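Sequence in, structure out. Go.
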Amino acid sequence: MNDKAPIKKILLLSANPLKTGQLRVDEEMREIKEGLRRSKYREQFVIESAEAVRYRDIRRAILDSEPNIVHFSGHGEGEEGLVFEDESGQIRLVGAEALSNLFELFADKVECVVLNACYSQVQAEAIARYIPYVVGMKKAIGDKAAIEFAIGFYDALGAGKTVEFSYKLGCNAIEIAGIDESLIPQLLNRCEKIDLPIPQIVGDNLASEPHPAPKRKRSSIIGIGGGIAALLLWGISSNFFRPQQPPFSLNNQEIPGRLSEGDKINEMPSPLIQPQNTAKFTYFDEYFFQGTQGQKIQLEMTSEEFDPYLELYAPNQQKLVSNDDISRGNPNAKIEFTLLESGLHRVVASSSQPQEKGTYNLRGKLIDR
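Output:
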């Protein structure tokens, strides 16, 4: 960022209804403002805020301030939505599709959305269809961790850093504070295509990396040699290396599975940390189904032995959506998504925590037929 960069307007929204657990949202707002006011590029930011936001206040605040960055601090309930109040003081949940449709209308102005609320990754993934950068929380996050993330994130923005760097610094701020929740914030980048990982042959199966991981350098593939790289990519596109998993279809049939030693593994690096650290990894299974553009599907993974984690990938290997916990108190995973294109989609079934093993059930179906 330089002295001639355009002014960025930040809209801070908070909601903490009386019938919900009390959060330190006032402290979070104060720390964000203080950090930006003392920052190197403070003249290039304008901060506006709205507290005790009701569901209809969201659009009013965006219309009034025309922000580039929208930050929400409050409660989230996963698939059920973010928590607001209505005009009578009752709790009103605003779901992912409603928020996604709202931000689509402001996509020409809004560049980044931060949802600093528990289980808000569901809403973040929906909003990320239209907004370049969106941050959400993949599970419950403590009040102190949420505040530390916000301080680190906006300290970096105020220093002229990119959104990606600011996100990483926010995660690191949680680590520096000694809180074991630095992997909960998730950054989604609408403009970013996920690089095809280098395949590994495990038995007769193709192993790849379903969780977000540091991008491989281009030399990782180019160094192998053009012929081998072309062969590997051909193998992916032609289904030559498809895993020998049970058939998976969207007929609401339950498929039993098991995560165990000997399965494919995926590294889980810390947001700022060395890719060579393989101490943390998850086992995973993958399934494939033929989908049609416009189909609305539901995938659900349940287990009594570990915390499930689900991911859905497009035919071009771009990650479309993921889910950790359905809601507060329900650690199972569920995805509802409208397919963007026709073709062979990949479902990755794994665990939220490193090296978890055990049995699970996976089910897929069409909804709103």
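Check: The chain has eight helices and 19 strands. The longest strand covers residues 281-291.
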